[in-house]
Amino acid sequence: MTTMYLGNIAKQLNLIPQFDVEQGTTLIDKHKVLESIYAAIDEVNAISTEDKHLDKSATTVLFGEDGRLDSLGLVSLIVEVEGQIETDFDSSVSLADERAMSRRTSPFRNVDSLASYIVELLDE
User: Fold this and answer.
1) What distance lies between CA 41 and its chain's CA centroid?
2) CA gap 113, 24 in Å, rounded
3) Which of 16, 55, 112, 117 is 20–30 Å from 77 (CA)?
């Protein structure tokens, strides 16, 4: 009963992380993860030339065909995102590990796919 009550309050207040009433577990809000990624993009843009600046949009292509980042730029972004996630969620994640690299679809193709991957890691 208490779990349901607290979960409903958390949902009504739109608290982050959100509380899953049925499962009794937390669910990371993807919007909050996107905000963390956008903050990291601001940091990377501050040290990049204008032609390498990334737009703060879920559809921004990061790496690969049509991507603005070369391999060094991707590494810089990954480091910034990991730091921002640790600050914002008090949880460390390793984005450039074997798990990410072995996926059929890269989590680094665009901002949305990166956010989804981070949510997956944080929800574990």
Assistant:
1) 11
2) 26
3) 16
Neighbouring-strand partners of residue 20: 25
Tokens of 106: 């890269």
DSSP reduced 3-state for 100 = helix
Average pLDDT over residues 79-83: 98
Hey, what amino acid is at 36? S
Confidence of residue 43 (pLDDT cuts 50, 70, 90): very high
Sequence letter at residue 98: E
106, pLDDT greater than 70: yes
Domain 29-122's class?
mainly alpha
Which stretches does DSSP call E strand in 1-124? 18-20, 25-27
Residue 115 main-chain phi, psi, to 5 deg? -60, -45
Q: Residue 113: which H helix or E strand, with range?
A: helix 111-122
Q: What are the φ/ψ torsions at residue 74 (nearest 5 degrees)?
A: -65, -45
Residue 82's pLDDT is what? Answer: 98
